[in-house]
Design a protein that fits this description.
single chain; eleven-stranded mixed β-sheet; two-stranded antiparallel ribbon; 11 helices; 19 strands; 27% helix
Amino acid sequence: MKQAIKKGTTIKKFNLDELKAEMGYSRKGNDLAASIADKPMDFIPMPKAFNEALKLPGFPMGYMSIITGWSNTGKSTLVNCLIASCINNGILPVIYDTENNFDFSYAIDCGMKATPEYGDVDVETVDEETGEVTVTTERQIVDWSGDFFYYNSRKLADTYGMNDYATGKQTTKKRNTAVIEDIAYSINEFLDKQEDGKIPMPICFIWDSVGSIISFKSLMSKTGNNMFDAGALSSAFTNILNNRIPTSRKVSSPYTNSFVCVNKIWNDSMNSTMGLPSIELKGGKAFFYAARLIIHLGGVAKAAIKKLNATVKGQTYTYGTVSKIKVNKNQLPTPYNITYEGEIACVHNGLCSIDDIDDYKKNNIKDILKRIESIGDSSVSDDDAKSMAFTEEETTEIF
């Protein structure tokens, strides 16, 4: 029903500022706690190859970003470069490696600062002829230290395995399996300590990868139910993704925190036009909706990479891979809400621009020779560099 309005009447004017003050809405003086303004946009810097391919300075601070792609497309290289950048720019990286494949040596080559810690390890040697077992003690790397926190699945279970997420209480028996809720619990714990002044720096939470562990309910029911896992990702991370991370962008927050995760994917060929497959995230839609930036590496149906090979004396070493990289979703503020697509090369020390591959080969020829020798049956020398052949190999595998 339309409301009748008399001709000649106007909207009554009132003092809106007085109303805001009466309702406790107005900010008084320098009270930043009541401010709704964001800090200036800032990024965790990434290498030049990333900037050139996507036209973005790096990963946005104060947001959730997702990296997707098939195996061997460069996801780990991006993560390593991100970790190195965090450490070099005064940001605390908290790494959740639930795939349990993190390569510290490769990460260090990409710029991560980590120090090996050595310890005595008992090593068993079995004589193949007699079956006799000999135990010797060797000095080996037993841990890594540095300005970061690193959790693999075992570390997560050791730290949070007493948590019963069904009752919210502590159990007497510790779980030996990490679950989705452990990561959310850990993130909240770090943010609480930051608010208490015990972590006086920005934090970047890095999870590799979503879809690699199950939920507490799946573990307890022994069913591995995908709906349970999707529900856990939604409920356990709702406050983190929709409140705690984004509100750190406000001027009232002393530190801007970020969340970057690698998300496992699958191809949905049943619900797409003309049967063309579409990429879907494992774990449901909760993370897709929460992310403001999604970067995809490689192709849609397969990895679609090019191997960069170096061959000498019949021995071939893949010194890098070229992968497509594109922005699949971008809801960052203007002018950063762009969706470019390009190519990057992943090499032993991180990311390389396509135009810089020739320079990389020249500058790293000795390193390439050493790696060829380490995997081959015969020795090579610096003189062999003259006969080295460089080729590019298109892959056809579906990883």
